[in-house]
């Protein structure tokens, strides 16, 4: 629910920022089939705009991984090596999750046609 001009409006869906992923993700308050065709189109349109930026986000994270790997190669301190490995693993996990989100629209398109 959000407040607009002294009234409360119930949101049937919204997009919220996921700090870890660096993108807004859909938060659907109902099953996909319960949305009207107009709502589905609006959701998919907004998602497509967000989704289009995912490859750039992945490329940016891959660059960070490459820098961490280069630092790891040079690192002699065991504790710092472990920290770098952990950072690389977390970044790789984020990239994996972004790839999953990148495929979400295909799932919705398929479900919408059945």
Shape: elongated
Separation, N- and C-terminal Cα atoms: 31 Å
**Helix segment tally:** 4
Regions with pLDDT < 50 over 5+ consecutive residues?
none
Q: Quick check: average pLDDT?
A: 88
Give the spatial strand order of the biggest sheet: 1-2
Radius of gyration: 19 Å
Report helical residue fraction: 55-70%
Largest sheet: 2 strands, antiparallel
Tell me the number of strands.
4
Sequence of secondary-structure elements: EEEEHHHH
* DSSP strand content: 15-25%
Structural class: alpha+beta
Care to describe what's here?
With 114 residues, this protein is an alpha+beta fold. It is built from four helices and four strands. Helix 2 (54-74) runs antiparallel to helix 3 (78-102). The longest helix has 25 residues, at 78-102. The protein is elongated and about 60 Å long.
Would you kindly provide a brief summary of this structure?
The protein has 114 residues and is an alpha+beta fold. The chain is 62% helix and 16% strand. The model has no long low-confidence stretch (mean pLDDT 88).
How do the helices and strands line up, and which of them pair or pack?
Layout: E1 2-4, E2 7-9, E3 13-18, E4 23-28, H1 37-51, H2 54-74, H3 78-102, H4 104-113
Helix pairs in contact: 2-3
Structural descriptors:
alpha+beta, two-stranded antiparallel sheet, 4 helices
């Amino acid at each position: 629910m959000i407040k607009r001009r002294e009234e409360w409006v119930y949101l049937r869906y919204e997009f919220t920022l996921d700090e870890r992923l660096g993108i807004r993700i859909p938060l659907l308050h109902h099953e996909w089939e319960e949305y009207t065709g107009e709502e589905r189109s609006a959701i998919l349109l907004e998602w497509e705009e967000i989704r289009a930026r995912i490859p750039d986000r992945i490329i940016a994270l891959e660059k960070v991984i490459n820098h961490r790997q280069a630092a790891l190669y040079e690192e002699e301190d065991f504790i710092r090596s472990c920290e770098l490995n952990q950072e690389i693993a977390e970044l790789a996990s984020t990239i994996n999750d972004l790839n999953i989100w990148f495929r979400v629209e295909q799932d919705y398109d398929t479900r919408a046609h059945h």
